[in-house]
Specification:
CATH architecture of the largest domain: Alpha-Beta Complex
Radius of gyration: 28 Å
Structural class: alpha+beta
Number of domains: 2
CATH superfamily of the largest domain: DNA methylase specificity domains
CATH topology of the largest domain: Adenine-n6-DNA-methyltransferase TaqI, Chain A, domain 2
Strand content: 15-25%
Shape: elongated
């Protein structure tokens, strides 16, 4: 613990800042007291671990019990501005009960804390529980149970809380909320950006299932080079090298890109065993085993790269098909549903090359495909700027968190 605290700050037990009312710190009823058969369509809300995110109440899939059943379980009552904290499995995730939950109960995987608001305001404690590393570590080491971590009520009551004067708590909350709201606005913008390119695809080319522009269709095998490893002896860890050509797997496909941050290296001899699947820029890679249809486009390639047997290489014929159009064609429901039809009933999901080559694709004019590619590149550049902005906002928030709980913001 910090030896020298700012004036008016003090370490207290969480139980010391709880309300003096009975069951101010309480968990949910045992599983034997609350069964699935007790749930009804409306009545008194039952809040579970799925409703508690970090600093966020999830208002979805809320269950209900009848008033008579609530009377049996009222020990676990919650009210607005109570704090909910997860006490089994994922430990310490905390949020505030919103105003629209006027009365409810919690399940056994949660605990409730009703605060004495003359000593501590809920939002201050929420930020401390969710973001202060010392408090988070204390929660983790206070757990019992080896297979399923459990935070019991005694441990919760004894959690050390760094408690400044109320005006300081309000100031800290105000600063952290402003920074947190900036992060949330950034996330909302990021979420909208994710839908922009698929929406643009449909706007420019229409739904490929109906082909409203009535473009000529061709089979993928007619306009693409498709190849996967067949009959190639799999790699063992003994064959990995510290440097050399790169060997990609499905784990390297993320967000429609090829992620080179963590790769396997192989020898030159192994690399040249399959020259037909040596990668080029603008190649499309797709998982064809296990999780079907995960995609990535190869870009900025300046080294030797090949693929594993779980991936398919799809290289468009540039005379009629451009990579970005092909990439987002593969993301459409039309294609993804075709994949599902092909793997239906398979014990191990697998899409065969003979099935890929027969998928029909509308062929828009090349200038339109090139215009789409340019727009995609502009959007991806904006996404990169947003990612840098998000990183800086996260760094700012984390810096403020560190300062907040050492008295530096007081």
């Amino acid at each position: 613990m910090q030896k020298t605290l700012p004036k008016g700050w003090k370490w207290v037990r969480l139980g010391d800042i709880a309300s003096k009312e009975k069951f101010a710190i309480v968990d949910g009823p045992f599983g034997t007291q609350l069964h699935i058969s007790d749930f009804v369509d409306s009545g008194v809300p039952v809040i579970g671990i799925e409703n508690v995110n970090v600093n966020d109440f999830v208002n979805q899939n809320i269950k209900y019990i009848t008033p008579p059943k609530y009377a049996e379980l009222k020990r676990s009552t919650i009210h607005p501005n109570d704090i909910l904290i997860t006490k089994t499995g994922t430990i310490g995730r905390a949020c505030i009960v919103p105003e629209f939950i006027a009365l409810g109960i919690i399940t056994s995987r949660l605990a409730k804390i009703s605060l004495d608001k003359s000593k501590c305001i809920p939002k201050y404690l929420i930020y401390l529980l969710n973001y202060d590393h010392k408090t988070i570590n204390t929660l983790k080491v206070s757990c019992s149970g080896s297979t399923m971590p459990i935070l019991n009520l005694t441990a919760i009551q004894n959690i050390p809380i760094l408690c400044p004067p109320l005006p300081t708590q309000h100031k800290i909350v105000e600063i952290l909320e402003d920074a947190d709201n900036l992060r949330k606005l950034r996330q909302q913008a990021d979420d909208k950006m994710k839908d922009l390119i698929p929406s643009l695809f449909v706007q420019m080319f229409g739904d490929p299932a109906t082909n409203p522009k009535e473009w000529a269709k061709k089979k993928l095998g007619e306009v693409c080079y498709l190849k996967g490893r067949i009959g190639w002896r799999g790699l063992t860890k003994k064959e990995y090298t510290e440097s050399g050509p790169i060997f990609l797997t499905g784990d390297n496909l993320k967000d429609l890109k090829v992620d080179f941050s963590s790769v396997i290296h192989i020898s030159e001899e192994r690399y040249f065993e399959s020259p037909e699947i040596i990668l080029q820029n603008d190649d499309i890679l797709m998982t064809k085993d296990g999780t079907i249809g995960k995609l990535g486009i190869v870009q900025n390639l300046n080294q030797k790269v090949t693929i594993g047997s779980t991936l398919a290489l799809i290289r468009p014929n540039n005379d009629s098909l451009k990579s970005y159009y092909l990439l987002y064609f593969f993301t459409t429901d039309y294609v993804q549903n075709r994949f599902k039809e092909k793997i239906l009933g398979c014990s191990i999901p697998h899409i065969f090359q003979k099935d890929l080559v027969t998928i029909k694709i509308p062929i828009p004019p090349l200038p339109l495909q090139q215009e789409f590619a340019k727009l995609v590149e502009d959007i991806e550049a904006e996404k990169a700027r947003q990612a840098e902005s998000r990183k800086k906002l996260d760094e700012l928030f984390n810096s403020l968190i560190q300062r907040a709980f050492t008295g530096a913001l007081a």
